[in-house]
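I am still getting used to backbone structure tokens and would like to learn alongside you. To get us started, please write out a protein record for me. Start from the sequence, derive the backbone structure tokens from it, and show both lines together. Once you have written the record down, we can walk along the chain together:
***
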Amino acid sequence: MRRVPGEKIPTLAYDDKSYYKAINEPTGALTLQKALELALMKNPELSVYSLEIRAREAKALQASLLPNLEVDIEANNITAFGENETSIWFGQLIELGGKINKRTKLAELESDLAAWDYEVKRLEVFTETVKAFSAVISAQERVKLHKELVSLSEKFLESVKRRIKAGKVSPAESSQARVELSISHIEFKKSLNELNLSRHRLSAVWGNMEPKFEKAIGSLGMLPALPSFSRLKLLAVQNPVIERWAVEIEQRKTNLELQKAERIPDPTVRGGYTRSNESGENTFQLGVSVPIPFFNLNQGAIEEAEIRLDQGNRQRRAVSLKIINQLNKLYNLLTLAHQELLTLKTMTLPEAEKAYKIIDQYYLMGRYSFINVLYARRMLFEVKLRQLTALRDYNQYITDIERLIGQRLNSVK
């Protein structure tokens, strides 16, 4: 089974209950690595997939077993004084056409499919965890940003009060500053609520409805350069969602072979012995019974298996095309987000900070009005919020692409 390279993340050891219990959510700081360990060890849906592997392994074992020997005991010519003859027969069904081997191989392939389904689900949980963790980091940054805005609004209100006291501005500006401070408090409380919801969404990934961790440690960064789309496309065709179809098609081929083998009748060989209580003679007998394939040649099951095989080939092509289309869409979104972040970082944010600093200083000198300061400050924080949103989306796109290529994007050469 393929794993996610570059990440030392343990897979779910469904039979290692002591290790399962040993992974506990921290009460303080939470790292991404710890969040992934918790998710991959305790995700409720993932545990179901691991049990499915065990169930199909048991099914494969059952498929490899030979039919049981049959015993038939008969008592003939029973009278009031006892029976005159006693017969004991032993029968054994002989499966021809390699049915047992084909049935065993079919069950083993079904077990392999369950393992691939587990791997697909594991990548989904990995992606869900990283995205939820990034959302918590983003929400924490929003709280810090709105807290900073509240602090600035409070300081600005004090500055306005001093200017009113000095007779430099109208008392109406004090009311305007209080309104702005009130709005800042509202946005700050909303950001706290958003953080609380994001923390709950993250802890729910490992089945905990009440998060224990206090904060997430990490940052939302940018890649120095994006890999080429052609390189990512080559990796995407190795996605477990696609690769599982190689096993799926092999499983359907095996099922077709099994259904064709079912046309061959299986004889039952019988051997036994009869004892006559009157004469004391023993008679040994042999026999064989064979079904006559006159009406049922298993033609319906064979046709269905042929259709399922053709259907599997078409589904594989459809899934491959869907994965590549998703990759193309995400890559375009990631490229646009990358360009937006570069523009915000190198031009938009520095200019907004510069404008606010100048207007704030000139307001104290009486050269700009309250509205000018308010507009400049709002513009600055809108730019910061937009940068934070763009950075969150950028990292979400990266995580979605990593799910398609099956490895970390920063490890792609």
